Amino acid sequence: MKNRFYITTPIYYPSAKLHIGHAYCTTLCDVYARFRRLQGYETYFLTGADEHGLKIERNAEAAGMTPQAFVDQIILNFQDLWKRLHITNDDFIRTTDERHEKTVQTLFSNMLNRGDIYLGKYEGWYCRHEEAFWTDTQVGNEHLCPECHRPVERAEEETYFFKTSKYVDQLLAFYDQNPNFITPISRKNEMINTFIKPGLADLSVSRTSFTWGIPVNENPKHVVYVWLDALSNYISALGYANEKDPALFNKFWTDENTEIIHVIGADITRFHAIYWPMFLMSEGLRLPDREFVHGLLMMKDGKMSKSRGNVIDPLPLIERYGVDAVRYYLARETVFGSDGVFTPEQFVERTNVDLANDFGNLLNRTVSMIDKYFGGQIPRYEGIVTVFDEDLENLARQTVVDYENKMANLEITDAIMSVFSLVSATNKYIDNTQPWNLKKANSERELASVMNHLANCLYVAATLLQSVLVEAPKKLFDQLGVEEDLRVYDRVHQFGVLGGQHVHKGDPLFPRLDATVEVPFIASLMQGK
Ligand code: MSP
Q1: Which phi and psi (to 5°) does residue 63 adopt?
Q2: pLDDT tens, residue by residue, 72-117
Q3: Is residue 200 a contact partner of residue 164, using CB atoms and an 8 Å limit?
């Protein structure tokens, strides 16, 4: 197994404020990065902003600002959101950073010198929204963009082309040798059947119709096509072709012991799974290990879009319900890799059922019983005592194994569900063992074992959930009196480490939400409504 990790989000367009769909992708990457760091692996986590292109130039103009001033102001929203979501990115790359521009210009020159880029003329169907040219077949009789379904227009432009034909066979061979490169697998088939098999045209990689981009050194009336510009962020941020010291790049890109994972939405798979590998091949660089394609978060009335006014801003949700409720909802509600639907009802239900009732209440009951029956001190672990101990302990051990395997494979939702199965089983264990009856029957040894098992299962759940929840595990550890040295992730591999600590009753981890108040509140956050 590789023992170092580089995980990236797409770099989002600062054309408007970010919505919950962007927060979804970044949060899931953060969960993964935290998980790997907790395991003790060196991990580099990158996010950023894709600031060039016609769309930004136009939005800035409409706002009466220069493009740079426009993006500078929107970037503040990005950074504020990531701070409030406790996103632990190691760097934030902007495509207007000088370091990035240097890398892109070098890549372009190298491609030109190698003969992978040539100057030609493009005539075709242009979609202003996607900033992409399409062929007759792709736009069909209706002349609609195959990506966004907006009308396209006929356009002609002098442009540089990247010779995709030179790398198609190599790309297909790479897909064959690396069956997990694009996951879920359905996305790989889509790439092959929709884009590669019908014949991949050479890619236009420069524009002369606007100026808000990185100029081509050799011919400055051209700016580099936004996608060649944007995709390069994954290496420019590591210092490739812009930094004298190659240490960071060597560590997180060149070294085969590093697993490189790009997490992307289905809308941008084509660029990441076809063109990005080709650009890297041209430059003689290794390819990423994995393009993980997550699904889209939709709204009840379809795709989220600012113009439809059905976009949810995550900031007021964090403000009202706390960062953990929002992170939990995002990571848990929708299976990572499938599409999901955001509804206020589900948000409230998820918080109440999983966090307030199952998890928070279990802690509350456990601390109260330890107070009542043992003067607030968690009894020592004595192995298997009651007839219910063995199953619970086995489940706790198995949960750690399952959680780690699933997380490693980016099955983040399943990983979380396995922790909540343990939480449910622990609640059930209270029903089975009936501590109040053990007390009545003076079964002191059994009662002690039950209290110990409850505390230890909560400890396992909270330790594992540290990648997802950033505040609750600490509160739980405080209430159970867990010492600093036991808060180290690795301790979760041994069952029964708690015993002897003094508990301190605190506030509920997650207050129960009143759906009659909160559902209308969340619904009111949909912009434009
Ligand atoms: N700038 C390009 C990406 C360049 S990467 C080298 C871009 N930006 S974007 O702002 O449109 O962001 C697209 C990405 O945001 C999607 O691929 C996805 O990860 C995320 N999402 C945007 N809307 C989303 C949902 N409704 N649901 C889930 N994720 C969403 O494309």
Answers
A1: -85, 0
A2: 999 999 999 999 999 999 999 999 999 999 999 999 999 999 999 9
A3: yes
Residue type at position 258: T
Q: Report the nearest atom of ligand 1 relative to the CA of 303.
A: 26
Using alpha carbons only, give the angle 254, 259, 265 rounded to the nearest 5 degrees: 110
Distance CA 351, CA 155 (A): 51
Ligand 1 within 6 A of CB of 296: yes
Which range of 145-154, 196-205, 248-257, 330-339 scores highest in mean pLDDT? It is 248-257
| Model confidence at 528: pLDDT above 80 | no
Mutate to test the pocket of ligand 1, among 7, 15, 25, 330 (most ligand atoms within 8 A of CB): 25
Percent of the chain as helix, strand, coil, to the nearest 5? 50, 15, 35
On the question of pLDDT at 379 being above 60, the answer is yes
The phi, psi pair for 511, rounded to 5°, reads -65, 145
Write down the domain spans for the chain: 4-294, 342-493
Mutate to test the pocket of ligand 1, among 7, 8, 9, 12 (most ligand atoms within 8 A of CB): 12
**Ligand 1 mean position, distance from CA 380 (Å):** 50
Same fold, 4-294 and 342-493: no
> How far is it, in rounded angstroms, from Cα 192 to Cα 190?
5
Q: Residue 314: is the preceding peptide bond cis (ω within 30°)?
A: no
CATH code, residues 342-493? 1.10.730.10
Rg of the chain taking only CA atoms, in angstroms = 26
Decide which of 1.10.10.10, 3.40.50.620, 3.40.50.300, 3.30.450.20 is the CATH code for 4-294: 3.40.50.620
Q: What are phi and psi of 17, to 5 degrees?
A: -65, 155
Cβ of 231 closer than 6 Å to ligand 1, yes or no, is: yes
**393 within 8 A of 383, measured Cβ to Cβ:** no
The verdict on the CB of residue 330 being under 6 Å from ligand 1 is: no
Regarding the beta carbon of 12 and ligand 1, being less than 6 Å apart is answered: yes
Q: In ligand 1, which atom is closest to the CA atom of 13?
A: 10
Task: Using the mean position of ligand 1's atoms as its centre, give its distance from the Cα of residue 403 in Å.
Answer: 27
Between the CA of 55 and the centroid of ligand 1 the distance, in Å, is: 15
CB 304 near ligand 1, within 6 Å = yes
Whether the CB of 268 sits within 6 Å of ligand 1:
yes
Instruction: Please work out whether the CB of residue 28 comes within 6 Å of at least one atom of ligand 1.
Output: no
Q: Which residues of 92-101 are buried (b: 16+ CB within 10 A; e: fewer)?
A: bbbbbbeebb
